[in-house]
C-alpha cells in the first residue's frame, strides 16, 4: 500500500461515484464475463509485450460505458480519479494502460462480437437476482459524436454514420437508443443506428415485454399510435409534452389572466 492509498482509505465520506462503483463491484458477474473473454485474450508468458490483466481491462471498458469515456479520456480518468483506478484494480505502483491498449481491448471485443454477449450475460444475471426488469421502462437516445472526417479502412465515410441537427447544432456520428429499468436505472436493451434516425422509430426494440409503463421525452410523442406498438400488452405512456405545446398552454393561461 502506498501513502496515497493510505490517505485515500482514511477518508470519511464516500462520494456518489464511490458508492456506485462499490455496488457495481458486487453486482456485476465478473467471473462469468472473464470466462467469456478469456479464450480470445492474449496469454501471459508469450514472447513480446505482456498483456495487462484481463480483469483490469474489462473493468476499464465498463467505466467507459458508464461514464461515456473515449479511450484517451479513460486513460486520463485513471490517472486523475483514485476511485476509478481502485475499481479497475490498478495499484499505486502499477502502470496505467494507455489509450492504445484500451482501444485494442475494445476492438478485441468487437472482433469476436463479445460486447453484446457481455451485455446479455449481465442482464440475465441481474434478472435472476431480481435486480432488473421491474415495472416500467424509460426510453432515451444519445448521439455518439465522431469527427466529420472519420473514414473507414477503405478511405470512405463510414456508411453507418450520418449528420443530424439537434437544436441549433449539427452532429456527425451514431446514436445509441436505450431502454432503462425505471426503478434500478439499469439498461436492459440497446440499439445503435446512424445519428439521423428518429428516436421514436427504435422505441419498440427497447422494451423487454413485461413492463406496464413506458416513459420518454417529447421525441417519443405519438409512440402509442405507431404500428410497431400494436399488439403489445396494454401500456401506460408517460411521454413529456413538446416545448411548443407547453408554450401554447402558457400563453393561453396568460391570455385568460390578462
Automatic annotation (TrEMBL):
GO terms for biological process: DNA recombination; transposition. Transmembrane segments: none annotated. Keywords: DNA recombination, DNA-binding, Transposition. Residues 134-247 form the Transposase IS4-like domain. GO terms for molecular function: DNA binding. InterPro entries: Transpos_IS5, Transposase_11, Transposase_InsH_N. Residues 15-107 form the Transposase InsH N-terminal domain. Belongs to the transposase 11 family. Involved in the transposition of the insertion sequence IS5. This is IS5 family transposase. It comes from Xanthomonas vasicola.
